[in-house]
Design brief:
Blueprint: E1 2-6, H1 11-22, E2 26-31, H2 39-48, E3 53-56, H3 62-71, E4 74-79, H4 86-91, H5 93-113, E5 118-124, H6 147-165, E6 170-176, E7 178-180, H7 199-207, E8 214-217, E9 229-230, E10 232-234, H8 235-251, E11 254-260, E12 266-267, H9 268-279, E13 285-288, E14 297-298, H10 303-309, H11 317-331
Parallel strand pairs: 1-2, 1-4, 2-3, 4-5, 5-6, 6-11, 7-10, 8-13, 9-14
Antiparallel strand pairs: 9-12
Helix pairs in contact: 1-2, 1-8, 3-5, 5-6, 9-11
The chain binds uridine-5'-diphosphate-4-deoxy-4-fluoro-alpha-D-galactose (UFG).
Uridine-5'-diphosphate-4-deoxy-4-fluoro-alpha-D-galactose binds near residues 124, 149, 202, 215 and 294.
Length: about 325
């Protein structure tokens, strides 16, 4: 059975493809290469020792998606393709709504056409907004603080409506917390193309001497050390969660949301300390003003994924730091 992976050359997509192949699935990757390069295909093949099918597809072009479904016998889809920068979404909301909504609507239309009704959808913990008290459970009221988050929330709602109207559909909404780390081989990780927004890419730049200092946004939050707390999760745990979600949608119908985190929170400062200890690298930092829109504490309740997907994160924060650093050193000067 062939699984279509959209955005399969991105950070989460590429690691998920590796895990799918390891579990014996056939994969077809589509990606428009806007935030990735074709080289990731080689990297996936190096890691898995298998050939993968890749087609460059712009998902705003429905005909291009249809061609893929004509060419391959797709049984289920894992949909990662989409823009993901919060800051960029605030500056260019139309771009975000256009890209994230229309590409998904095109995909769903084509899936309907070909009677493919199993979907694992890449959502985000951002749909919990900033008012709920952690640990966050899947049944909390939802709201999103920026256009990126709202595009995810709208898509979750669209998918719920679709499943409501078509009871044979099966959809898993994957609400990611803070994915970091890299494949343990050092061959696959997050490609540092853009100016980073997230914490770990900044830590790596400082540790490698490319940036002088890490700026920590806020040191006066009501937490033990004053910095924000996040539920960091290893990218390979996240990838494995998708394989379990795929099994779930194959065996059930309906629409279910799943938190994909560890259930454990670490502060920004404790991530830094752990990184320094396990890598032996210094990460100079300064504490500056709070970043607008940051929530103080984000931690997943992971019971539902454990019970219904039979999945639980295995990697520790130390592994996430070591693997991120190994990856970053291997691509230094590469991009
Ligand atoms: N941080 C710094 N300095 C930096 C970068 C980040 O101090 O240079 C801090 C942030 O203020 C925050 C923490 O590190 O306290 C984590 O920040 P990230 O940007 O890495 O992650 P966020 O939790 O803000 O955002 C992540 C995803 C979003 C998603 C959101 C909610 O990147 O896509 O979780 O689920 F919307």
């Amino acid at each position: 059975m062939t699984i279509l992976v959209t955005g399969g050359l991105g950070f989460i997509g590429s690691h998920t493809v590796v895990e799918l192949i390891n579990q014996g699935h056939e994969c077809v990757i589509i990606d428009n290469l806007s935030k990735s390069t074709i080289d990731v295909v080689n990297r996936i093949e190096m890691v898995t020792h298998k050939k993968v099918s890749f087609i460059k597809v712009e998902m705003l072009d429905k005909t291009a998606i249809r061609k893929v479904f004509q060419q391959f016998s797709i049984s289920a889809v894992i949909h990662f393709a989409g823009y993901k920068s919060v800051g960029e979404s605030v500056k260019q909301p139309l771009l975000y709504y256009q890209n994230n909504l229309f590409s998904t609507l095109n995909l769903l239309d084509v899936m309907q056409e070909f009677a493919v009704k199993k979907l694992v959808f890449s959502s985000s913990a951002t749909v919990y907004g900033d008012t709920s008290i952690p640990p966050l459970t899947e049944n909390l009221p939802l709201s999103a603080p920026n256009p990126y988050g709202r595009s995810k929330l709208m898509l979750e709602e669209i998918l719920r409506d679709l499943v409501e109207a078509n009871t044979e559909w099966s959809v898993a909404l994957m609400r990611y917390f803070n994915p970091i780390g890299a494949h343990t081989s050092g061959l696959l990780g997050e490609m540092p193309y853009d100016t980073p927004n997230n914490l770990m890419p900044h830590v790596l730049k400082v540790a490698s001497g490319e940036s002088a200092k890490l700026q920590i946004f806020g040191g006066d939050y009501e937490t033990l050390d004053g910095s924000c707390i996040r539920d960091f999760i290893h990218i390979m745990d996240l990838a494995k969660g998708h394989v379990k979600a795929l099994q779930y949608v194959e065996q059930h119908t309906g629409c279910e949301a799943f938190n994909i985190g560890t259930g454990v929170g670490y502060s920004v400062l404790s991530l830094l300390r752990t990184f320094e200890i396990v890598t032996g690298e210094k990460v100079p930092y300064e504490i500056i003003n709070r970043r607008e829109g940051d929530i103080v504490i984000s931690i997943a309740d992971v019971q539902k994924a454990e019970n219904m997907l039979n999945w639980k994160a295995q990697y520790q924060l130390e592994d996430m730091c070591v693997d991120s650093w190994r990856w970053y050193q291997s691509i230094k000067g590469y991009v």
